[in-house]
Design goal:
By secondary structure, this protein is largely without helices or strands. Helices cover about 0% and strands about 0% of the residues. The protein has no helices and no strands. The model has no long low-confidence stretch (mean pLDDT about 95).
C-alpha cells in the first residue's frame, strides 16, 4: 500500500513536503491513486537532498493545472525523467517548477510536448547553474505561453 492510496479525492498537494530537507527519494507510485489532483504547487519545495524524481510520478494525475514551484530549491536534483508531465495535459503553469535546482544537469527532450495549454514558464529553470544544455524544440508545442520571464 502507498502513502496516499486512500486519499483518492485530494485536489491539492500544495507544499505537502515543504522543507523536508532530508528527503532523499520519492517512492514510486506516490500519487497513483490521487486522480483528482489539480495542483502540486510547492509540493517538494526546499527538499534540498532530493536527488531524483521517479519516472511516472504524475502519470495518473491528468487533471493537474499547476506545477508552480513543485521542485523549487531541490538543490541536489540532477535530472528529470523523460515523460514526467506527459499525462498532465491540463497544465497551465510551470512557474518556477525547477527554480534553483542547482545540480540539475539535463532536461529530457520533449518534456513539455503534451502540455499545450501552458501559459506560464517564468522562472522554470532560473538559477539551474549546472544545466549543460537545453534540448532544441523544448517549447515547440507550447504556443499559448505568455510568460517566459525570469528573475534576475
Amino acid at each position: 500500500m502507498g502513502l496516499f492510496d486512500y486519499n483518492t479525492e485530494v485536489p491539492s498537494f500544495n507544499y505537502a513536503f515543504y522543507q523536508c530537507r532530508n528527503l532523499k527519494y520519492i517512492p514510486e507510485g506516490l500519487f497513483d491513486k490521487c486522480t483528482e489532483v489539480t495542483s502540486f504547487d510547492g509540493t517538494f519545495y526546499y527538499c534540498d537532498n532530493l536527488t531524483e524524481i521517479p519516472a511516472g510520478l504524475f502519470d495518473n494525475n491528468t487533471k493537474v493545472a499547476s506545477f508552480h514551484s513543485t521542485f523549487s530549491h531541490c538543490e541536489s536534483l540532477t535530472s528529470i525523467p523523460a515523460g514526467l508531465f506527459d499525462s498532465c495535459t491540463e497544465v497551465t503553469t510551470f512557474y518556477g517548477t525547477f527554480y534553483k535546482c542547482k545540480s540539475l544537469q539535463t532536461i529530457p527532450e520533449g518534456l513539455f510536448d503534451n502540455n499545450t495549454k501552458v501559459t506560464k514558464f517564468s522562472n522554470t529553470f532560473t538559477e539551474c547553474s549546472n544545466l549543460k544544455e537545453i534540448p532544441e524544440g523544448l517549447f515547440d508545442y507550447n504556443t499559448k505561453v505568455t510568460d517566459f520571464g525570469g528573475y534576475i
